[in-house]
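In response to the reviewer comment on reproducibility (Comment 2.3), we provide here a single inverse folding case reported in full, input and output, so that an independent group could reproduce the run without further information from us. The structure tokens appear first.
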């Protein structure tokens, strides 16, 4: 069966009515009606070396060809100069906009530029741009009458405007991306989204359409995407010097995201341990407590890779100073003890500081603060240097493995007020209204830069609460903020995370269990334990796997009523480490996305356009988290065009159907796509532990490929070729698995692997545990081999 957008009929009716009015002669597109803004004169269009330029008595528009599928549009009031405002989120223009061949032609009212994949036309009379495929399909069109608007921005310097650009979407397309928001909406059609950083609300002005294009609204200004009227899509910014946007064509969403990262930066590979479990709570209050929790994880044989020191480790009044309170007697020794147990340590470091701290007083003395706040100004290179040298740099020298850059919107008040706090401040880079959303990019960028200067081989891992364009290049994961411990919040995190993935940012996580209310400190309540279990099951399939919250105890054994389920999913995450780490390599090498809304892989199946509570975890696994309390089943839509195997039972079903799937408390519905090769390691307790044999589960019904990735685990030598790839191919017709010759090498690489090969069928090769009787066992020594079933 297929799902339909309930608003589709109304949209189609609206379009039909408008068409009837125009065809009946009631209105014409060029006709002036009462109240219409006086239309400017026609635009004069001339070709340029990079595209074309157009001008009339109202404005100047320039279109630049950056690539066959990537076009850059700028527009500004007539008589003004092109923008010179910095845009540090963009890569150097030689990388971001290398150019491509094109043809230019004019016929009557239309000037048309054609690349190898797109054609864009400008109407001289109306001034609007229309973007089409080479087969003539319109993918995006600006509004036909005065598409762009400019008003003087109150309180801003001359030449700074309140800008807008209006587009005319078709009746059925769906919209995604724009960062992370808490409305619970997956498809933003018919809504308005504010783009201003805040705790739990992340502004990334990249919009993707189900039609196969993206729009990058190229400003850090406080902005809105407004689609309240479904046939009118408006981007509006409160302060900018020109309209500035990119059109990216896929049509696959992976190709759009590749284009976005080519503009703004590619994501580096995290250390292997960062893909394991992070144990955290608000808060561990002493060195002894942290060491005890780590010891218990190891003695209980619960897989774990990192433990987190949250805030208030500092001396009273010393937030901002690298001085621990009396509960921490020897931090370097603590870190050494953790490392000896293969446990890594992350510490919370805030950009907001106590005004009494030595660091903040020094920042004020140097003039490095954002006036009227308690945060430093990361848009000032000298301030970034000072911040690192006074705080995170001194902690890094102690041996910490990661930084939790909390309050990175930034937050200036607690509890927060609900507004982007930089709007009416002045930054080193420019006015706060023009650069409202830039803080997290510059904050994480400065820490990464100095980290790599201090230790160029230790991979950067940062956790932060906000993000902006380009931040994926800074070695930073984003978490969804201080969300509540409710079923409502859990449901809303799923759609929020999927839109975040469609904003081009590959790494994201949540506070498993929610951060606070209404279950502050109430981990023993049965109702909460059910919520925690379902959240943990969902969190297992987030790119980063992390538990945190404002509870007296938050370790897995705390949740005694659901502990077996938690342990089972923790072990599953660790069995999946060969799969997850290989996907991480695809993120770095191919601009891949791990947590994938169904519309990414099944865009031709319109039922997926509205599904924001299921997702693919890599190419193989379909995850359907349980998001309602006291339920033991849930409806699952299996996308059309492929077969699907129940991970738990091995039963096969065809796609294009909705089914009720069993979901007792100890499991959620998981399905694996036919043709998948799913690598599962043995039971391990930390990343990098000896991992033999590797079980290769083969799901027949289609051809399939997967590439296993391996490296040293925590150095940047992978960028210089120190890594290995093992290609796997399943030929369904001949029922043959080919394990290709290993490509590449690295220090410490094993001579080969023991592979247990399992052809999945009902009751065989299912669930978390390894198959007791694999179909074949092979000793792989790096050369090509085949196995036929």
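Designed residues, in position order:
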């Amino acid at each position: 069966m297929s799902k339909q957008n309930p608003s589709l009929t109304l949209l189609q009716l609206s379009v039909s009515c408008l068409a009837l009015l125009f065809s009946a002669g009631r209105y014409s597109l060029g006709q002036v009606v009462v109240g219409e803004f006086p239309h400017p004169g026609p635009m004069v269009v001339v070709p340029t070396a990079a595209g074309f330029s157009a001008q009339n008595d109202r404005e100047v528009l320039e279109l630049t060809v950056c690539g066959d599928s990537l076009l850059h549009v700028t527009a500004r009031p007539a008589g003004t100069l092109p923008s010179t405002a910095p845009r540090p989120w963009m890569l150097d223009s030689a990388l971001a906009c290398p150019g491509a061949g094109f043809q230019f032609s004019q016929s009557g009212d239309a000037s048309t530029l054609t690349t190898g994949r797109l054609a864009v036309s400008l109407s001289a009379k109306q001034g609007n741009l229309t973007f089409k495929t080479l087969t003539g399909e319109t993918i995006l069109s600006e509004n036909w009458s005065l598409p762009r608007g400019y008003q003087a921005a109150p309180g801003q310097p001359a030449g700074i405007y309140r800008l807008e650009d209006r587009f005319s979407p078709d009746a059925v397309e769906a919209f995604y991306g724009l960062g992370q928001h808490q409305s619970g909406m997956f498809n933003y059609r018919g809504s308005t989204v504010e783009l201003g950083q805040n705790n739990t609300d992340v502004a990334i002005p990249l919009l993707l359409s189900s039609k196969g294009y993206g729009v990058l609204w190229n400003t850090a200004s406080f902005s809105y995407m407004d689609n309240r009227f479904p046939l009118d899509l408006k981007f509006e910014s409160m302060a900018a010097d020109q309209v500035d946007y990119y059109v990216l064509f896929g049509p696959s969403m992976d190709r759009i995201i590749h284009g976005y990262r080519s503009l703004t930066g590619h994501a580096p590979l995290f250390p292997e341990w960062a893909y394991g479990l992070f144990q955290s709570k608000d808060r561990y209050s002493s060195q002894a407590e942290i060491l005890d929790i780590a010891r218990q994880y190891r003695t209980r044989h619960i897989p774990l890779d990192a433990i987190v020191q949250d805030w208030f480790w500092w001396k009273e009044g010393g937030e901002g100073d690298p001085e621990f309170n009396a509960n921490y007697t020897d931090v370097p020794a603590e870190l050494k003890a953790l490392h000896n147990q293969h446990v890594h340590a992350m510490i919370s470091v805030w950009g907001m500081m106590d005004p009494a701290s030595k660091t903040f007083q020094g920042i004020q003395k140097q003039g490095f603060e954002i006036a009227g706040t308690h945060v430093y100004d990361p848009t000032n290179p000298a301030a970034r240097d000072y911040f690192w040298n006074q705080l995170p740099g001194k902690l890094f020298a102690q041996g910490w493995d990661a930084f939790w850059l909390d309050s990175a919107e930034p937050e200036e008040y607690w509890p927060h007020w609900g507004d982007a706090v930089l709007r009416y401040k002045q930054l080193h880079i420019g006015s706060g209204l023009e650069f409202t959303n830039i803080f997290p990019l510059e904050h994480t960028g400065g820490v990464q830069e100095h980290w790599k200067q201090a230790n160029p081989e230790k991979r950067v891992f940062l956790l932060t609460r906000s993000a902006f364009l380009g931040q994926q290049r800074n070695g930073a994961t984003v978490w969804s903020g201080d969300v509540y411990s409710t079923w409502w919040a859990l449901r809303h995190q799923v759609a929020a995370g999927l839109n975040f993935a469609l904003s081009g940012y590959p790494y994201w996580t949540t506070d498993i269990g929610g951060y606070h209310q209404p279950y502050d400190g109430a981990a023993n309540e049965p109702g909460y334990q059910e919520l925690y279990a379902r959240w943990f099951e969902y969190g297992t399939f987030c790119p980063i796997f992390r538990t945190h919250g404002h509870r007296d105890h938050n370790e897995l054994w705390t949740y005694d009523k659901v502990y077996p389920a938690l342990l089972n999913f923790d072990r599953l995450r660790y069995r999946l480490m060969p799969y997850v780490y290989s996907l991480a390599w695809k993120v770095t090498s191919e601009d891949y996305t791990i947590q994938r809304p169904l519309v990414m892989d099944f865009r031709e199946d319109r039922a997926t356009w509205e599904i924001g509570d299921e997702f693919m975890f890599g190419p193989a696994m379909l995850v359907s988290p349980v998001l309602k309390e006291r339920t033991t089943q849930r409806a699952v839509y299996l996308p059309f065009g492929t077969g699907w195997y129940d991970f738990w039972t091995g039963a096969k079903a065809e796609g294009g159907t909705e089914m009720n799937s069993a979901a007792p408390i100890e499991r959620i519905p998981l399905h694996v796509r036919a043709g998948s090769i799913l690598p599962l390691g043995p039971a391990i307790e930390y990343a990098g532990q000896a991992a033999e044999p590797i079980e290769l589960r083969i799901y027949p019904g289609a051809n399939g490929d997967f590439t296993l990735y391996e490296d040293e685990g925590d150095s940047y030598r992978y960028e210089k070729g120190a890594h290995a790839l093992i290609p796997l191919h399943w030929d369904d017709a001949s029922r043959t698995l080919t394990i290709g010759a290993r490509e590449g090498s690295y220090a410490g690489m094993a001579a080969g692997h023991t592979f247990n090969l399992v052809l999945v069928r009902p009751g065989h090769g299912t669930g978390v545990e390894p198959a007791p009787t694999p179909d074949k066992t092979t000793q792989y020594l790096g050369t090509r081999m085949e196995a036929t079933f």
